[in-house]
Specification:
Number of domains: 3
Radius of gyration: 21 Å
Number of strands: 23
Strand content: 25-35%
CATH topology of the largest domain: Gyrase A, domain 2
Largest sheet: 6 strands, mixed
Length: about 425
Amino acid sequence: MEARASAHGQKTRFPRNAGQLRFRRKSKISIFMGEAFDIATIARGARIRRSPYFEATQRYGCKSYTVYNHMYLPNYYDDPVKEYWRLIEGVTLWDVSVERQVEITGPDAFAFANMLTPRDLTQCRVGQARYVIITALDGGIINDPVLLRLGKNHFWLALADNDVLLWAKGVALDKGMDVQICEPDVSPLQVQGPKSKAVMQALFGDRTLNLPYYHFIETELDSIPVIVTRTGWTGEVGYEIYLRDGSRGSELWERVMEAGRPYNITPTGPSDIRRIEAGILNYGADMTLANNPYEVGLGWLVELDQKAKFIGKDALKRIKAKGVKRKLVGVEIDGEPVEFNMTRWTVSRNGTPVGHITSAIYSPRLKKNIGYAMLPIEHTELGTQLTVAVPESGDRPAKVARKPFIDPKKEIPKS
């Protein structure tokens, strides 16, 4: 579940009663052709879509939005560190309808879906979900969605930030396969944190308590059609509620908030602190089309022994046999707490630039700065000493560290 990006460094205000978005950033000025440019002046319009929960996020005081899959994604309602503690100690509610779905149906739907991803979908039964990657012909990563199998020939891809709908339509046209591909009226919410089980039990009864990790049920809540999955973007116990009728977004939001009030549920944005602790990657930052799965630690999603000839299979065989020249590693950065990085920070070894930071942030629980760096393979051994150029702070000592930083066996979300 990418989603997903958060702008923790923004100083943003959102007027609850305004019909337009007004963004203000402090000290986010670029110089172009000798003139000052304030990034807050970038124009926005109707082409950027609003989720079925958008009005609810305004009512509950969202202070910052980013754009993700051509939609507004809430960043935060309160200080991101406070939201982090609410997540790991209680329960939080996220509007993640930016996880747009690509729906695949038709007689060739299974064969088509199995061709899009290196994961062997013969091992995915109806009612199960899978974390998958979608690969290009050269093995590059196009997206890393969660796949849901709703029927023998019925699939959803819950997407990170990229236009997979267009890719899938192009592949189907090229291959001449009998499939229907569309973006359905589906909008997920995430309910995340150790108290999420109690909230979901209040909403849907005991059946959610025994729902295995990466499984789902189709159900209704007061006649609101939904799918409930044991998934999330946190490394915590969590669920996603996929709304199947966008006209009832505010209604569903309030039902979840009502069920969660005894447990002090709080709307928040996605937590970059927690997802970095958990070793979760953010598509577009930690991996892009220029990366292959082996470089970013997702080789376990590539099942080369399967019979299906998925897109990129030959290229990934060659890459695996040859070995990678660079790798995404965990890093610890010395010094005072850093804010979530807005750009790639240069990483040096012995005074020579060798790579860059893709994501970095301060972990209040670990009391250290943590993140990921893309480095040449010869600089990726655990403990390798590095230097990171932190904007407005200067060079900081750093070292290669093991990731995930917390719960490497993912026992928490499975509990």
